[in-house]
Amino acid sequence: MASKYPEEEGSENIYESPSEFSGSDSETASDSGSCHSSDSNSSKRTAKRNICRYYNDGHCRYGDKCQNEHICKYYVNDSCRYGAGCRLNHNPRSHASSGTNEPRERKSYGGRHRRKRCPSSEDSDEDDSRSYRWQLDLGDGWEDIANDHILEAQYSRPNTKGIRIYNTRAGAISIDFTKMRVLKKRKFKVRRKGSKQTEWLWYYRGDHGWYQYGEKGSKGKASPIKSTKLEKEYQKNLQGSVQFPIDSHTYEISFKGMYQKNVSTDLKRRVRRRPKYEPSETGVLTSVFKKLMAPVNKTPVWQFEGRKGKWHTFKNTGGCSVSSDDIEKCYQKQQNTMTFTNNDDNYTLNFARMNQVNNRTNAKRKIQRT
């Protein structure tokens, strides 16, 4: 498996973000419009098994007495996007009810009965011995991925859609984090075995990047709902939704579609659920890796548009009375306007219209927050 992370040009590439994964994550909001991908072959595989659809919807009235299989239908089709984070049963040898994995006796296709068997740690998607464990199944069983703290660190970043691993027994493979699958290798599988103590964080795609729920976004306002609340509701019903208000607007978060919607305007934003990163117990972070793990959202910079469409950063030099940081502080206080002087002229910044007005000449310039 992998042995190291590239630190400088010319070193052996073990992990990288593949070309199909954009660092800026600029795909449309519809990429998470559906939790799971499916095709005709997947439908046929599901149809061959008596899978309880009520269990998958989160409310089977028969529980352990149900005659159908209590197993994640997307796991059966190798298309469950949640992997180890999925609430549903991923163990084909066990019968799950109400979020628990309990073994049951079931018939095989030949009419014989299998013995009752408790799920082993190898079959389970939970691993309490470690905070996380990344594994690959290349067709002959699950194997640990060496230096998996690199995968975990990238997976914990909401703007990272996937990663490419080079030195596996099958050569280079690309892992899609959003659907937890190996791209272009249908027979290969990937999973993240997590701990019950894993802290899950929820993010939404804002105007200038990804923002965590409960923290201030690009407009300086924090959502009243936090990751802990979202995770609690998600565990109750992963097909459900949650609503919350901001000012005069009501927003709805769909767990099934993984999007946030403005109820009034139907404007949607993507939502992602990622684990809080726990540093490796044995590995030492390289300088490049530390850079990768820098906060997703940097301190915003305020700029004004000059001649020929060139943007300039506000600086407290050359007669200007404010800097970019001064403007950001005022913006975070949720003020609508701010005044400043440049040489002998007075100016007003309008945060609602995102422009700068010369109070003497009424000349206007655009401003932006990047």
TrEMBL record:
One of its GO terms (biological process) is protein ubiquitination. Residues 1-43, 91-129 are annotated as: Disordered. Keywords: Metal-binding, Nucleus, Zinc, Zinc-finger. The keyword Signal does not apply. InterPro entries: ARTD-AVP, WWE-dom_subgr, WWE_dom, WWE_dom_sf, Znf_CCCH. One of its GO terms (molecular function) is zinc ion binding. Residues 109-118 have a biased composition (Basic residues). Pfam families: WWE (PF02825), WWE_4 (PF23466). SUPFAM superfamilies: WWE domain. This is Uncharacterized protein. It comes from Triplophysa tibetana.
